[in-house]
Please model this.
Amino acid sequence: MQNPDAHENRGLQSQPPPEEQNYGATAAHVRQRPFVSVSRNGPAKRDYLIAAVLCYANLINFMDWFLVPGTLIDIQKYFELSDGGTGLLQTVFILCYMLAAPIFGYLGDRYNRKIILGAGIFFWSVVTLGSSFISESLYWIFFLSRGLVGIGTASYSTIAPTIIADLFEEGRRTTMLSIFYIFIPVGSGLGYVLAAGMADVTGDWHWAFRITPCMGGLALVLLILLVPHRTQRRTAAHRALSISGTIRVAAERPDVHRTAKTTWCQDVISLAKNRSFVWSSLGLTAMAFVTGALGMWVPLFLYRAQVVQGIVPPCLQESCNSSNSIIFGGITIGTGILGVVAGAEAARRLRKINNKADPLICATSMCISALCLYTALMVAQTNILSTFIFIAFGELFLSVNWAVVTDILLYVVTPRQQSTAIALQILVSHLLGDASSPYLIGIISNAIQAKNAHSFQWNFWSMQYSFTVCAFVGVFGGGFFLLTSFYIEEDRKEAEQL
Model:
């Protein structure tokens, strides 16, 4: 049994029960390393520095995600892949990512989170660097390397948000988590820009896979030097992990009892009964399906549209024109920042007048996004500028939902189950979402091409027809969020009681 006096908070916050401070092997090191606590008077400057380090690592995380789509034409030609085989690259990455996520969620709830984050950053950086030296005859090793990178990044995406949420309270948590999630579209867009830019400058797409590992090394050093060995976990005795700021301190309420430690299976069963969590996770899955397909195929789709219109010639040289990747990367950055900020602000304002505001915002945004994307597909053959505009609006309304969906999970799930809930949501949303959509779009395109004469026109049409699946999935996503609104008040109240 630990000595509670060894971690006295000295008036900053109520002390959590000993069994909730550490799990398993970490208990052996408690006496040497104190917790970092959150002051009621506001977070310290070091807390903001820690959050900045985690945001920087999140930037690199998502840059690595989109190095392949940023140089997709070159990679497809280098390894001589069909559309289906090309789509499988991202599917392998996401499958490994989602399968590893629940494992890291379990570990993150029970063991030292800094060590897990550091190991993940080191692992994915080394593998990304190694993948830049693979020859065209060993394409299967390149596929394998993308899967290993997915495993490394899963450790980060599952655990890092919980550390930030432990450092800040209420309104500040809203701001800091919103900033953290802004780096998803920013990192994604910079991944396109970096990949395409390095390919243009060097004439070799491999160099893009040699830059982010260096950035990952810097992130690892900053993590080791600036992030504390452990941060105090919020439990049922502390403010719930919600960026809405609406849940009160459980310890301040006499009718609330501390919950006993539960097993992973018990947590999963409990989450399966949480209807708001289930429906919002399905809505997130639809979002992931659409964003996965867009992220993988839009630059190639735009290139084929430009070839059909005669704007650019077919790519026959070693290094292809990558301007579409750079433009799409810029669109992703701009719409991502604007969408996340607008979504968080809209949710904060509308919650004051409607307790169901969050899922209703998500439902509306999904449906508008689906309409914009469908319009973009229809005008692509005749007007490339209009296509860019409607794609930008489609991505903008998708980005509105990112921070809001995370907030829904954080206030309808009890603090003790949140890392597990995030991990399960990652598993489901990626399995049925962006792990499936790149490959599905690719094989549909292959099937259409196989039934028609080979031509640049049919190369474009095959991608256009297969992309329409995304518009319909977006509408279904809006329906899932609408269903969430029917149960969210009840589930939020239940989470407050635990």
In short: The mean pLDDT is 80. The CA atoms of residues 224 and 286 lie 37 Å apart. The two ends are 25 Å apart (CA to CA). The chain has 19 helices and no strands.
